Amino acid sequence: MRYLAVVVAVVSILLVAGCGGDEGEETTTATTAASTETFTISETDFALSPSTVDVDAPGTYTFEATNDGGTDHALEIEGNGIEEETDTIAPGESASITVDLETGTYEMYCPIDGHRDQGMEGEITVSG
To answer: Do 3 and 61 have their domain in common?
Structure first.
């Protein structure tokens, strides 16, 4: 009888210890598995579509720029201390940029050779 009590106690300890380890792993997985929302921006000669993007909350967002035009383009996002841009995107190619956006308004535009002045600009608004 004493042997059975020791076995039950050891098994109980192992089960409790095993459960504690699982919880730590789940928390780590949930923290590292946060997803990033992606917005697709079509760049043509000479416009961005969509030209306005509304985001509900601050966070990390990816903007995938696809060059649907006949000349090289790029995408730059600027505002609130952020200034990030893609490399030059050849016609038919895509590039992405991931940024941490806070509440506020940001400019997005093509920084190549006066394309912005020709209409390749837009705005990102982050609510909060």
So the answer is: no
